[in-house]
């Protein structure tokens, strides 16, 4: 029992000293709180004014190994504003952070809490718990933000389902050439990053020599905008290069949309 009391006392002293000597923490805490409060107001300009142009955003999306920059940060904020209503952050706790090497207070901010609101299209409610951290530059702007929550689960629960199936009838002997092309940065990763893309999967069927791309979009209008861009304005000419590897050229690339009566089935108990 004495050992436990000593540990508790030590932790209390560390927290007291950290908060007392962490001169920038209160300023940065106010900034972090304001960033989240402005989300509910859908005031993107006020939010971006709190953020460094050199920000690094670490998202909860699977395999997002590289941090995103300012433009992507702005796009994600806008996407939340466009797709959600009555957004509110309910903090369970706000905490000072420390430098991971020295374990000394560095002015960073941590928070555990829950976002509530509803999807603008489906009307489904969100109740999303998670953890967020914010690191700051000398001017008090957010230079790094990390997010830890179940992004996939959230989107599956509340997002609309607008599935699109794209079939590519590949020329004999061109399977690997097509896969290599679509795996470049201008290929399917760009598709996945496009506004309105919620998920994207692909696979090849060797018996029919056909490549299938399955995606879920926020709306079919979003997908049509993407298709128009790929066909007319994409400087990489990805659509044209893909069609050159398909039987019949353009006729070998077949998008199947819009679709209706989406259903999801769970295993019976």
Structure report:
The protein is α+β, with helices and mostly antiparallel strands and 269 residues long. It folds into two domains: 16-158, Nuclear Transport Factor 2, Chain: A (Roll), CATH 3.10.450.50; 163-256, Alpha-Beta Plaits. The protein has helices at residues 2-21, 25-41, 44-48, 70-83, 151-158, 175-182, 188-193, 220-233, 238-243, and strands at 51-58, 84-98, 105-119, 125-136, 142-148, 163-169, 197-205, 210-217, 253-256. The strands form two sheets. It has a five-stranded mixed sheet. A four-stranded antiparallel sheet has the order 7-8-6-9.
- List SSEs in N-to-C order: HHHEHEEEEHEHHEEHHE
How far apart are the termini?
Answer: 48 Å
Radius of gyration: 23 Å
- Counting DSSP H or I runs of 4 or more residues, the number of helices is 9
Number of strands: 9
Any idea of the CATH topology of the largest domain?
Nuclear Transport Factor 2, Chain: A
> What does the overall shape look like?
elongated
What structural category characterises the helix and strand content?
alpha+beta
Helix fraction by DSSP (H/I, runs of at least 4) = 25-40%
Major sheet: arrangement of strands: 1-5-4-3-2
């Amino acid at each position: 029992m004495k050992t436990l009391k000593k540990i508790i006392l030590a932790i209390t002293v560390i927290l007291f000293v950290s908060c007392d000597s962490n001169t920038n923490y209160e300023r940065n805490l106010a900034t972090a709180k304001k960033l989240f409060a402005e989300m509910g107001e859908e005031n993107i300009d006020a939010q971006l004014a709190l953020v460094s142009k050199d920000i690094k955003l670490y998202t909860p999306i699977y395999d997002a190994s590289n941090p995103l920059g300012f433009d992507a940060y702005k796009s994600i904020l806008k996407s939340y504003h466009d797709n959600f209503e009555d957004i509110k952050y309910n903090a369970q706790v706000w905490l000072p952070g420390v430098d991971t090497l020295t374990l000394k207070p560095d002015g960073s901010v941590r928070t555990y809490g829950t976002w509530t609101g509803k999807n603008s299209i489906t009307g489904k409610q969100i109740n999303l718990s998670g953890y967020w951290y914010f690191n700051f530059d000398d001017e008090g702007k957010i230079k790094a933000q990390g997010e830890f929550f179940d992004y996939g689960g959230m989107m599956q629960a509340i997002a609309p389902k607008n599935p699109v199936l794209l079939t590519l009838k590949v020329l004999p002997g061109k399977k690997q050439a097509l896969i290599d092309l679509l795996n470049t940065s201008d290929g399917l990763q760009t598709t996945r990053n496009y506004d309105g893309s919620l998920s994207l999967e692909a696979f090849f069927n060797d018996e029919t020599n056909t490549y299938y791309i399955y995606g879920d979009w926020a709306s079919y209008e979003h997908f049509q905008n993407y298709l128009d861009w790929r066909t007319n304005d994409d400087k990489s000419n990805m659509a044209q290069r893909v069609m050159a590897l398909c039987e019949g050229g353009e006729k070998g690339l077949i998008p199947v949309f819009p679709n209706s009566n989406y259903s999801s089935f769970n295993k019976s108990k």
